[in-house]
């Protein structure tokens, strides 16, 4: 039986979806909500859009969403922003440059803070995607914060990863080669009306040709001008072709299995940390931290000591 507070989310009621996402971000009763929603997920496909700041990712995401609207495909957008060191919230907030889409009920836009997590992804993003999936959004676009090689985390979440580059990014491409260049399913040379766009596209194609992918999908290079929409139709068509390839080749199932395992490991870590904070007092954490600071103990031994205390107290509670 579907509960009263879950049904509006499954019906795609905007305010209920927004409240659910706030619940996920604040970790306020999120686990119970997600338990109820999870059986109604699995239909949405996730598009990751990553790349350095200034490449035009947000404008490109807006254009992609518009193309999906033209095809009557409901789209959710999660923009992962840097965390304010003071408030803990997203510095860029709900992105003004995408607000022209906000009046369309087929689009849902949300900014989320990274909250210090490496990889450019918020720790709440996976849970937010569960909410939007259950709410019936067919395509979920995750735009990451744009911090270089740490962006490789997106490939663990997205079905299709789009890496956005600028013309003349030769040095940047070489820097990314060991990380970001290996995760892209589609490489976009944005602002392609600038000098050096053709050369950059050729450099990326040369790197792609030098590596063989296990999945069998050959990454595609596309030139776009996001401000005018040039090349965006080709980009969306290629994204859909990549999704179709994954479905026919069986790679989607393997990716979903890997994602499920990752989520399980992440959740176990979260639960263990919560238990650790329950069984170990704030004063004990501070005492160990002070000993580490004064070099009376190393962090590794301190962690083992903390684990031993937790195990001992768990035994006493049984």
The helix tally amounts to 12
Identify the CATH architecture of the largest domain: 3-Layer(aba) Sandwich
The percent range for strand residues is: 5-15%
Distance between the termini: 35 Å
Mean pLDDT: 83
Strand order of the largest sheet: 3-2-4-1-5-6-7
Structural class: alpha/beta
Uncertain regions: pLDDT < 50 for 5+ in a row?
A: 84-94
Explain what you see.
With 318 residues, the chain is an alpha/beta fold. The protein folds into two domains: 41-250, Rossmann fold, CATH 3.40.50.300; 261-317, no CATH class. Helix content is 47%, strand content 13%. The protein is built from twelve helices and seven strands. The chain has helices at 7-10, 14-26, 30-37, 57-70, 125-134, 170-176, 180-183, 197-209, 232-249, 251-279, 282-293, 299-317, and strands spanning 45-51, 75-81, 107-113, 139-143, 160-165, 186-189, 220-223. A seven-stranded parallel β-sheet has the order 3-2-4-1-5-6-7, with helices on both faces. Helix 8 links the parallel strand 6 (186-189) and strand 7 (220-223). Helix 2 (14-26) crosses helix 3.
